[in-house]
Specification:
423 residues, mainly alpha, 74% helix, globular
Length: 423
Amino acid sequence: MQAVLIPVTMAGFQLVSWRQLITEAGSAWNILCGGAVLFGTFFLTALGPRSLASEGRALWITLTWPRGLESLLKAKARLWSLISSALIAPILLYAAFRFPGFAWKIALVGVLWLLFARSLAEKSVTLASPTPESGEAQKIPMGRHWAVYLGAMTFATGIMTQQWSAMITGVVYSVMTAAAMWENFRARLPYLYDPWSEKLPPAPTLMHAMIAISAMVEGGAATSGVATLFARGDGAWIAMVAGYGVSAVIVSVCVASFLANRGVPAEEIWFWRARSKLQWSEMACVVTGVGLGVSLGIAGLAYIWLLRHFPFTAEALGEAALRTAAIPHMNAGLLVMSVLIAPIAEEYLFRGLLYRALDREWGGWRAVLGSAAFFAIYHPAISWLPVGLVGAANALLFKGTGRLSAAVALHLVYNCVLAARSF
C-alpha cells in the first residue's frame, strides 16, 4: 500500500492534471523532455513527505533496531526513483519517436534523469517525521523543504534551453545535496521522538562544505557587482576578479572561525593524519605536488591545443583570449588570483572540507569523483575535463599524504603553467 499503491495513485492524479502541459509540450523535443522531468520532479517531491507520514508511530522502531530504518528508507527511495522513471520513460520514448533526429540527446536526458531521480528520491525521504501521540505531524523546516529542490530547476531549465552544462550542473548539485541531507538525516534518525537529544554529525559536514562553497561563489558575484558600480570601463573586469578573491578570503576565514568554535582547529583541516598511511614530510608533500602540478599543467596545455582544432571550441577560445587581451593588466590580475588566492581558498573548501566529508560519507572512488565533479561545475564548462582531473588528483594526494599543502602546491603550479602561456 505505502510503497506501490500510494505512489501509483498519486501519479495517476498528476497525469490527469498535467495532461494539457504534456500535450502542448509536443512542439519540440526539449520542451517535451523538460515537461516530463518537471512532472517526475513534482511526483517525487510530493510523494516523499505524504507517503512517509503514513508510517506514523511505526518509526519508533528506529530506537530499538540495531540497524535502524536507514537501509529500509534507502530501499524505498530506490523504489520511488524507479517508479518515477517508469512514468516518464513513455514520454521520452514518444519524444524519440516524434523527433528521431534528436534521439541521442533524448537518451542522454534519460541517463541524467536516472541519476537525478535517485538523488531527488533520497532527499524527499529525509523529510520523514514521526507522528506524535497527539496525531499532529511535526512541521518540517522550510529550509529543508527548499534544499530538496536544489538542482531541480537547473536540470529542467538546462533541458528546455538545450544547455548541457546546466543539465549536468543540476544533476551534480542534486546528488551532492542528497548526500549532505542524508548525512544529517542519519544522525537525526534515532532521535525522531526525542529531537532535544539529537547529535549532529561531526564537523566539517557536507552541508558545511556546500554552504561555504556556495557562499564563496555567490559572495564573489555580489562583491563583484558592487565593485563594478564604482569601476569604469576596463576596471569593471578587474573588479570582478578582485571580488572573487575578497569573497574567497572572507569565507575561508569565517569558516575557520566557525569550525574552531565547534572544536575543529585549523590544523585538523590542513593535516589529515588519520587517513595517511605513510609519514610524509612537508618538503616531500610540496615536491610531489609541484611535480604533479607541472604534469597536469602540460596536459592542460595539450588539451587547449586540441580544442583549437575544433571550430566551435576554437572560436570560443579565441573570443575569450581577445576579451582578456583587450583589458589592461587583466592577465596580471588573473595570475594573482589564480596563484595567491584560488589555490589556498579552493583547496581548503573543496578538499579540506568537501572531500573529507564525502570520504566519510561515501568513501573510495565515489568520493573522489564526486568531489572532482563538484569542483569542476564551478568552472567554465569547456574546462571541466582538466579541472576535474586536478580535483581528483588533489583528493587522492590529500588522502595519501594527509597534508593539504600538497594539494595547494599542485593547484598553484597547475595554474602557473596555464597562465604562463598568456605572457
